[in-house]
Amino acid sequence: MQERHHTGKWQADRMNAPRARTREIRRPQLSEEVAGRLRAAIMTGDLRPGEYIRMDETAAQLGVSVTPVREALLTLRGEGMVDAVPHRGYAVAALSRKDVEDIFALQSHLAVELAKAAAARITPEQADALAELNDALRNATSPDQVIWAEFEFHRLLNHVADRPKLAWFLLQAVRYTPHQLFAEDASWIVPTTETHDKLIAALRAGDIAEVIAQTEVQFIDGARRLIEYLDRTGMWSQD
Q: By three-state DSSP, how is residue 89 classified?
């Protein structure tokens, strides 16, 4: 593995500057928050395969102690996102195009099952609430608003499905989605809200085939966008 020392750019660009203004890390979720920031940096290529993550530098950038950073790295090691290198620390593990496709394929499978369950249970009032959240997404004026509306839309849909264990597994899988990246992409919102419109109509009509199709297309689009982004940034330039 080729050693790379991170420069701190990913913290300044993606972790520290934009997020410190909107949400402080809270003590009870400290290691989970740090893991989430590192996971997002890995999934967007801000931390590249082979790059070493220095605990003291990361802690300083996030304004936390080394302990939650160490705990976060142990979590990411368990997920296969980083490798522990004896006497060297933690290095970012390899991430391939197929890995990205597999992550989104898993999310899609779980989301389809939840959407099918929701189609059998949804009420007109719940469909109206989904439409309101989709309007909030359409009219969002900041990445934070985009993330909130998208999360609430799918949270409500999964609540309607009443499959809590399945929803929990989906929640774990979507941790690997770099939400900030999509929220900052102006070209993502229009097709996403249009897909949501079609999904809501299919849910109202009980059209299971269309529910499946409109659910799957969101994850196909997400995988494509992330892979294209990583291609543009040279993630796999040495493949």
A: strand
Q: Are strands 89-92 and 51-53 parallel, antiparallel or unpaired?
A: antiparallel
Contact 195, 169 (CB under 8 A): no
Question: Whole-angstrom Cα distance, residue 210 to residue 103?
Answer: 23
Collapsing DSSP to helix, strand or coil, 63 comes out as coil
Structural domains of the chain ordered from first start: 4-92 (1.10.10.10), 97-232 (1.20.120.530)
Please check whether residue 144 is in contact with residue 4, taking contact to mean a CB–CB distance below 8 angstroms: no
Give the amino acid at 66. V
| 236 three-class SS | coil
The 3-class secondary structure across 19-38, one letter per residue, is HHCCCCCCHHHHHHHHHHHH
Q: Could you tell me where the DSSP H helices lie in 2-141?
A: 9-10, 17-20, 30-43, 55-62, 66-78, 97-119, 124-138
Residue 122 near residue 189 (C-beta atoms within 8 A): no
| Integer Cα distance of 143 and 186 in angstroms | 10
pLDDT at 74: 95
> Of 12, 51, 58, 52, which is closest to residue 35 (Cα–Cα)?
58
Question: How many helices and strands (H and E) does the chain possess?
Answer: 12, 4
Give the tens place of pLDDT for each residue, 31-50. 999 999 999 999 999 999 99
Mapped onto helix, strand or coil, the DSSP state of residue 96 is: coil
The pTM of the full predicted model, rounded to 2 decimals, is: 0.85
pLDDT tens-place string over residues 113-165: 999 999 999 999 999 999 999 999 999 999 999 999 999 999 999 999 999 99
